[in-house]
Amino acid sequence: MQDFQQAFVQAFTLIGSADPKLVEIISLSLQVTLTAVSVACVIGFPLGALLAVARFPGRMGVVVLLNSLMGLPPVVVGLCIYLMLSAAGPFGYLRLLYTPTAMVIAQTVLVTPIVAALARQVIEDLHAEYDELLRSMHASRFQTVWTLLVDARYSLLTAALAGLGRAFAEVGAVVIVGGNIDRVTRVMTTTIALETSKGELALALGLGFILILLSILINGSLFVLKQTAERMSYA
């Protein structure tokens, strides 16, 4: 029990003193995750909007596939990207394996279906409401998609934050493609797993507290955005 108490004290000491190693790990985690979510939004929002507005044969099959991809097993994604980026893979010449860029790619693959599927649902509901108005204005497909994206911006931010929460919690894929290399690809989740296996609980607990805080901030932001969107809809 004394060891646990000491680990908690040391964890708060690391946080309070802004330990350089702790800050470095958190900084890399934020860099990788925010980059991946940004790329996922750039891809996922237009994709979701197009699926919501467009009508073509096999559309429902694409929608079902997109929804299914929301539950992609992270280790499988990591394995597929590893095979593509390894020396024997088609993109091995880029030498991206075991770099932060490979981790960004893995997280982007995992987050994009989530963002796209949530965006599709939001835009589809909004399109059903505005369809007649947009048709009467003779809006083009691009104008329709852009108008709906702008009008649904608060709900889309909610989708982005949902993807952010998913990315922050990711372990399996980033370990496979990043390698958990000290001062190179070591992020919060992989460090927690490593330090716990070594019995070094102070750093693991410190990072765990930071992850919990980030989770609270993300969920709090989701609640605020939801309330804001509801007020805007009634205005």
UniProtKB/TrEMBL annotation:
It comes from the Bacteria. Keywords: Membrane, Transmembrane, Transmembrane helix, Transport. The chain crosses the membrane at residues 32-54, 61-85, 97-119, 156-181, 201-225. Pfam families: BPD_transp_1 (PF00528). It is found in: Cell membrane. CDD domains: TM_PBP2. Residues 26-222 form the ABC transmembrane type-1 domain. Belongs to the binding-protein-dependent transport system permease family. This is ABC transporter permease. It comes from Limnobacter humi.
